[in-house]
Design brief:
181 residues; alpha/beta; 4-stranded parallel sheet; two-stranded antiparallel ribbon; 6 helices; 6 strands
Length: 181
């Protein structure tokens, strides 16, 4: 059991749904993602379909400004929205979520129509949210064509618990010198 960040292929996704993931500005590898995103949005004779992008976020980001549809969503509403999508895509009847049902039903229909060619990403560092996103992408068959687990991203491989212990030790005067290389 180990954590990895997969390689995301925004250029292979026909529908991208982001939850607080500013993948064109500051999330993980924005330069790489911007190139992929641009490629997926380019229309040509060989590929006349442009990807569609829906972004949920609490404040405007570079990614949200580039989206086809930007939906303002409080961080406290993200878990409910993701749970709603998961339940809907699982074939279950999701519970109500403060007036977002219509939007989320449309998104679920779009994701369902783009199985294996969609991508749901979440920029929040919350394990419950990431588990829901992984579940949604798994239900949609996005692992393989759009999400590559064989080539993990080695960024952000930190250990939050160890960092918190270090901070506590520094506060308690147990660390006299800290060298960062």
């Amino acid at each position: 059991n180990h954590r990895i960040i997969p390689t995301y292929r925004f250029d292979n996704a026909r529908l991208i749904v982001g939850f607080g993931a500013d993948f064109l500005g500051s999330w993980l590898m924005p330069a790489t993602f911007a190139g992929q995103y641009t490629k997926g949005r380019r229309v040509s004779v060989e590929d006349p379909q442009m990807s569609r992008h829906i972004q949920f976020e609490s404040s405007v980001s570079i990614t949200g400004a580039s989206a086809d549809e930007r939906i303002q969503l409080k961080p406290s509403q993200v878990k409910g929205a993701l749970r709603y999508l998961y339940e809907r895509l699982s074939g279950n009847t999701p519970g109500p979520i403060s007036g977002l049902e219509g939007i989320l039903d449309d998104i679920a229909d779009g994701l369902d129509a783009n199985r294996g060619r969609s991508l749901v990403v979440c920029g929040y560092n919350d394990i419950d949210l990431q588990v829901l996103v992984n579940g949604i992408n798994h239900l949609l068959g996005n692992y393989g064509p759009v999400i590559d687990l064989t080539l993990p991203v080695r960024l952000k491989s930190g250990d939050d618990a160890s960092m918190e212990r270090l901070i506590d030790e520094m506060r308690n005067g147990e660390v006299s010198v800290l060298l960062i290389h």
